[in-house]
Structure formats: C-alpha cells, structure tokens
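Renewal narrative, Specific Aim 1. Our central claim is that a sequence can be written position by position from structural information alone. The example that follows is taken directly from our test logs and has not been curated for this report. It begins with the structure tokens describing the chain, in the order in which they were read.
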C-alpha cells in the first residue's frame, strides 16, 4: 500500500480534539474496525513494534575489541617476537590480547541482551473492538483507528485518545518522571500541552494503576511517544569516554617514545660502539618489546568488567565496558523537580489500632518480614484488631503483587501495593471474598469502598481512605479487646498527624 496512505493516519495534536473528531479523522467509529480494514491499515503503517536498530555483526563486534593503540603495539610486538622465533613471548603477548578481547566481547553481549528488554514495555496483547466484538489481539496487530479498552494492571499497547474513563489512573513515570499515577479525563487539552499534561491520552508502555478506560489508537510503533524516545536513543552518536581519550593519547605517545628510544639505541650502538648490525637489531627489538606494558589492556578491561558486574547487581545495565568509567567523571546529575531519584515503591512500617502500634519489617513489595508488637512477633489469630484491620486493607484493594525473575513487582497503585504486601507478611489471604460491588477511589472522595461476601457467608462493606473522610463517617471504633466502643476522634486525629 502506498506510503502516503499510511501517513493519512497520523494526527496532529489528537489530545486537543474531541474524541468524536479523532474518530472521524481516523475514519473509525466506537464500534471498532472491520477485519479487512484493519489488515489494510496494518499493511500501510506496519506492525506495532518499536524499531530495532541495525545489529552489529559478530565479526565487527570481535574486531572492535582490538581497536586500541596499546593493542596495536602488542600485536606488533607479537609479530616481531614471532619473526625472532621467541615463541614463548609471542604466546604470552597473544594470550593477553585474546583474553582482553574475550572479556569485552562477552560482557557487551550480556548487556545487549539486557537492553533488548526495553521492547518488552509494549503490551504483548490488547482488548480490541473489532466488528462490534471485543477480542484479545496481539498488540503488534493494532492500527490507528482501533478501539481499545484498559483495565487495572494492563500495559497500554499503543498511544490512545481516550473517550471514556472511569476513575482511570495511569502510571507514566517512564515518560514523565512523576511518581504518582496520572488521572485521566477525556476532555481536550491545549495543543501545546506537554506529555505529562495530556490527560486525554494514554501512552504506549505505561501501566494502568486503577480504573477503566476506552480509547482509539492514534499512533503505533515508532510513532508513539516511547517509540520516539527509542529512535532518539538509536540515533545517538557514540563519543569517546575520557579514559579512552587518555589511553589513546598515552598509547600514541608511548609508541613514539619506544620507537624513538629503540632507534636511538641502534644509532648509539652503531656509531659510538661499532656493534654488529645483527646484535643491534635484536637488542633494539628486545628493548621495544620489554618497554610495552602488555598487562595494561588486560588490567583495564578486567577493572571495567568488575565495575559493570557491580552495576548489574544494582540492576543498572551498561552496554559497553568503557561507559562505566564515565560515571566517575560525572559532574552534573539531573533529577526531577523535587530533587530526588525515587523507586516509586511504598512500604508499610507501622499499623495503629486502639491496642497500640504494630511495627513492620521488610522493604519494597516482597512479602518478606514480620509484624511485631512490643518487640514480639505477632500471631494473627491472637490479635483480632489487627486481623480486622488487614481484612479491610486487603479486600478493599485493586492491586496485585507477583514475583518475576526473583523480583516482586506491583500492578496497581503503590499505596494499595504496600497494603497488599502487609497482608501477605501477616499471612492474611483475601481469597474467599468475592466482590459484589465497588466505589472506586477518586481524589474528590478520598476513599474506596467494596461490597464483599465473606468466607462465613456474610455481606460486608469494606471502606478505606483518608482519615478525615473516614472519621466523618464513623461513630464507633474497635477496642483493644475486639468489642465496639464509641469513637475517640481526638485520639485518631493525633495519631494521623504523626
């Protein structure tokens, strides 16, 4: 299909248009695209994948490990010693050169595999409305004009212009750096709005933290916001690090000095001492080989490789060994407007009931740690106040935590994730509480409520939210003994301010 037809699906500033106008310009409707039309558009715009940079060939990667002035000197020395039939020296020099190249080749290969993980940020599948029916489709098959719905835990499969939302909040820190999920609204925003202010859009690769939404695809693959970032990264011109520039200068200077001294030795021996030419030649070559620091490239490579391994253990991937050295030359660090670099993780450290304060150990979303009271580990069955507290926090909760590759990850709001982890640490399971209805959290209400059936067959409303909103709706509290007593409003206000 002609390239011009593919360009016809590119919209300027869709976030500033009404949802119906976007559908009209994309020649689409809320009922979704027909199968043949979607196939034709896929042929025109290409699959919904991030463009991959041209991979460096195996031979090129191998040869690049030997592009170093000191390596050139060592190879020249190996050639000279081989011509003199000094096979032991030749073998040692070549072993150093090969080991140096092998370490760099293996480490860079591992880093390349890790970097390819950025392409996993695109959702592998999506709920798409085709021919009036919702279908589960491979995200790579999405095209502009497709209608997609979003639910909690979904990764947005393409850039969408939202036209229906229900308390939808999306975690966009990969694009905006904001730690809190962005609240979405289908109303248009000004054309000049930045990515973080385009509340009528959902961007590819971001994560739905809460709520639901429906939107029309406006951009796929490299035309998405994350695709543009990927393209900029691929187009970045490589530059030499300070260490490489210093080593290049040192290698050239050392080469000139060694050759100059060898020539000077030859001339002095010939014209001042009248030594035979054969002896002078061997002596000059021997001096040159002895003056070359054969171990320097290997030491440098091993040192950088150790640095890369330490970075990898901290989950920082370095594509090339030399990049590790630049961290030591950093003079300016750019952070977000709060001056912090955050992990966007929350952890419950204390839980307060009428009985007192419970302390919680552990960090992150890993359900590893314990709950103590007065320095002693808590048995949940013996603390009815804590059990009821955890019941509310775990049941009125839309988040989930799961372990992937040895690391615990969250799908949902960080606050809900911390409460979910707290329940897991105490051994409380929210299974067996089927949800019958819910009032999702909104910033205007500042609370969330769910109607559930308990394992005992009872129906209960579970409510959690901001202290002021809960206190206004409460008349009683749970005593330390587990019975009902009048609400001590001043007590809870004091505790909430700490």
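The sequence written for that structure reads:
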């Amino acid at each position: 299909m002609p390239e011009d037809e593919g360009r016809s699906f590119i919209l300027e500033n869709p976030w500033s248009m009404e949802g119906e106008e976007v559908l009209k310009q994309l020649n689409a409707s809320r009922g979704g695209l027909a199968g043949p039309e979607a196939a034709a558009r896929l042929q025109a715009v290409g699959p919904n994948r991030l463009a991959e940079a041209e991979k460096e060939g195996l031979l090129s990667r191998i040869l690049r490990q030997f592009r170093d002035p000191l390596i050139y000197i060592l190879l020249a020395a190996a050639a000279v010693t081989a011509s003199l039939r000094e096979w032991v020296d030749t073998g040692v020099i070549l072993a150093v050169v090969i080991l140096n190249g092998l370490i760099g080749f293996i480490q860079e290969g591992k880093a390349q595999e890790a970097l390819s993980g950025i392409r996993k940020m695109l959702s592998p599948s999506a709920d798409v409305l085709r021919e009036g029916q919702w279908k589960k489709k491979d995200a790579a098959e999405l095209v502009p004009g497709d209608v997609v719905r979003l639910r909690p835990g979904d990764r947005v499969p393409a850039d969408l212009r939202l036209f229906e939302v229900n308390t939808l909040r999306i975690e966009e820190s990969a694009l905006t750096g904001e730690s809190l999920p962005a609240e979405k609204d289908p109303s248009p925003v000004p054309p000049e709005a930045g990515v973080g202010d385009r509340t009528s859009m959902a961007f590819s690769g971001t994560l739905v933290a809460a709520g639901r939404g429906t939107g029309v695809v406006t951009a796929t693959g490299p035309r998405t916001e994350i695709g543009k970032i990927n393209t900029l990264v691929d187009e970045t011109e490589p530059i030499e690090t300070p260490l490489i520039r210093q080593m290049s200068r040192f290698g050239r200077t050392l080469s000139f000095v060694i050759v100059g001294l060898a020539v000077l030795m030859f001339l002095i021996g010939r014209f001042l001492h009248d030594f035979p030419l054969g002896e002078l030649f061997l002596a000059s070559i021997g001096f040159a080989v002895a003056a070359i620091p054969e171990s320097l490239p290997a030491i440098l490579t091993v040192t950088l490789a150790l640095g890369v391994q330490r970075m990898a253990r901290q989950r920082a991937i370095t594509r090339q060994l030399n990049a590790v050295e630049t961290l030591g030359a950093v003079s300016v660090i750019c952070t977000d407007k709060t001056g912090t670099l955050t992990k966007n993780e929350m952890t419950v450290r204390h839980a307060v009931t009428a009985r007192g304060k419970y302390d919680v150990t552990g960090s992150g979303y890993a359900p590893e740690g314990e709950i103590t009271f007065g320095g002693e580990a808590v048995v949940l069955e013996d603390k009815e106040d804590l059990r009821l507290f955890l019941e509310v926090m775990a049941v009125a909760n839309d988040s989930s935590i799961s372990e992937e590759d040895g690391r615990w990850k969250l799908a949902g709001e960080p606050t809900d994730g911390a409460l979910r982890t707290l329940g897991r640490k105490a051994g409380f399971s929210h299974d067996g509480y089927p949800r019958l209805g819910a009032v999702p959290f909104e910033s205007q209400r500042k609370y969330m409520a769910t109607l559930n059936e308990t394992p005992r067959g009872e129906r209960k409303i579970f409510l959690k939210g901001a202290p002021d909103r809960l206190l206004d709706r409460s008349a009683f509290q749970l005593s330390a003994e587990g019975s009902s007593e009048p609400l001590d409003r001043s007590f809870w206000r004091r505790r909430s301010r700490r």
